[in-house]
Amino acid sequence: QVQLQESGPGLVKPSETLSLTCTVSGGSLRSFFWSWIRQAPGKGLEWIGYMSYSGSPVYNPSLKSRVAISVDTPKNQFSLRLTSVTAADTAVYFCARAGYNGSGTSPDLDYWGQGTLVTVSS
Amino acid sequence: QSVLTQPPSASGTPGQRVTISCSGSSSNIGTNSVNWYQQFPGTAPKLLIYSDYQRPSGVPGRFSGSQSGTSASLAISGLQSDDEADYYCAAWDDSLNAYVFGTGTKVTVL
Questions:
Q1: For a tag site, which of A44, A60, B8, B17 has the least CB within 10 Å?
Q2: A61, B96: Cβ pair inside 8 Å?
Q3: pLDDT tens by residue, B7-43
Q4: Higher pLDDT, B39 or A27
């Protein structure tokens, strides 16, 4: 059974960098895409981006200038960095596994971490 | 602002059938498959439907998905109190080169 677990600071100061790690257990990082999604309090889901273990990352255009996703295959982890954060970046951040199952041309997120709340405040 | 539009809310009594719409465009639903997610308060979303209509193992047959043109729908038949949750559609958008979620629909069982 694949499990994902986010970790990182729950509080980040404005203008600083948000850094989170997702540890994957029960499966390898190979053959899938690894994603970050966030949800501001009381709001909907926002896709941040994803990357595979061997490919280039793809980011949400609205965040592209500030975001970086990386994969560490030996550690079975992948990470998120979001620079120059503001209060608008306060959200629950989820990591998830993405794959292309069936005849789908959209990635489906089939395994998720429980999410971690990151608050941006001084 | 999401490019996939859903009604904010939907409701029904136990046993009824509820349908949630997801309206997009030619660059997303019109070209790519649609997935649906179910989210209970304080928990991570769960994949409910993938590739327009397929159900992951363990998802009851009461949940069904369909797609036509630039719109998609999720139907819940035999509505149960346990179905009270938020539901999101999602699809890849070729113009944005990004995965986009719908605005979300809160389902209430009366």
A1: B8
A2: yes
A3: 999 999 999 999 999 999 999 999 999 999 999 999 9
A4: B39
